[in-house]
Amino acid sequence: MIDPQLLRDNPDLVRRSQEARGDSVALVDEAVAAEVSRRDAIAAFEQLRASQNQFGKQVAAAPKDEKKALVAQAQSLAAEVKAASAAASDAEAEFHRIVGSIGNPILDGVPAGGEDDFVLIKTVGDRPTFDFTPRDHLELGELLGAIDMSRGAKVSGARFSFLSGIGARLEIAIMNMGLDRAIAAGFIPLITPTLVKPEIMRGTGFLGEHADEVYHLADDDLYLTGTSEVALAGYHSDEILDLEAGPIRYAGWSTCYRREAGSAGKDTRGIIRVHQFNKLEMFSYVLPADAEAEHERLLAQQEGMLRDLGLSYRVIDTAAGDLGSSAARKYDVEAWVPTQDAYRELTSTSNCTTYQARRLDIRYRTESGKTAPVSTLNGTLATTRWIVAILETHQREDGSVVVPEALRPYLGGLEILEPVA
RNA sequence: GGAGACGUCGCAUAGUUCGGCCUAGUGCACCACCCUGCUAAGGUGGAGUACCCUAACGGGUACCGAGGGUUCAAAUCCCUCCGUCUCCGCCA
Asked: Is the CB of residue A336 less than 8 Å from the CB of residue A355?
């Protein structure tokens, strides 16, 4: 949720953000109006309630013979209070509904527009070149006995896979490499629940426009998380955190589930876009003033991983329209995928400023002793999809794949992945 | 899945029998000040969260796991749900 104070003080800033995102600007004015009626309704209710409380004391103190008359008198007041109370909670709900649908105001410098309007920040590493026709990740995966899509489809349907043999080991290796680095950088490992309650899913902002991307278990009213960000953000919900000693950082390890509802026909081959994968996610709770610096830290962690895995990549500053509602800025790190002749997203890191924390009620104590929402940030540190870029980048003519040095310790020293007979 | 107990303002507890004197008492911890010649004890006061009104001082409302209900009035009565613990059953 955005800061209601911002709505009063600087609605223009919110309007500009909505505009850049391609979202409704009129919503801002609706929100301002809803705020006024909310306050009026609350004031009216509280005044009535105060007089009812006063009256209650009179009744309690009155001698027996006067009580009956007083009680009769209080009945109409009670009805008024009830009506005013209902009006106040309606106005409150309406206000939250409207304000809740306004996206996090973007940070300075975030480009306006949609998916293609990103700003390129940097390109790192030489694109691999081959003196043979490179195989795509699925062909390689099958040669290596690492990826089995057809059995995935047999058991669970399209967009499900089995990682077998070296494929399974490769995924665990990537995840473990990420975990070791995360621990070294002060992140606390956390294996998170992947089923969460509606309020947590809503609080993290995933039940907005993209609600159809989320699996829902109707019988239990629980949601399958598409990223451990959800559980990591919910972890400290309704808490007041002590950030005196610095940011609180977690590395969440979980399986992720996505319906991929809007991507029919897109990336249907291999494991680029599947319904289920594993991911190690960084998540930081920081003071608002430290959020942008933390964002750069998360990005640096991600770049370190890609660089040491020998991948060629670029970093982009995602355009406003391509941000989730919670993010005020998002950097994607995209690796070069030779057979697609394109950069594909391997990691994403978002600065949600205080937006997510406000929804989930995560606060810290300011110097004056007041409470204020913290800032939250998240970023991928390792995920199944990386197998795609690693296989394709480091492949050789015979279908074998050279293991990047940094990854070898996690594969028992294995240097070359050899095709199975 | 069955039976039972419990969920109170940081922690621990009182209050729930018979609704109003509980806008919630007490202890510990905490903060400020006082006293004290000493790493202690004592005294006084303060102290939760959110929202609303106010220039400010200050005032008001809500919150006793969550949500409904009964009532002039609910921590206290009723219903639903959630969580914790104990016992039993079932299953990897």
From this structure: no
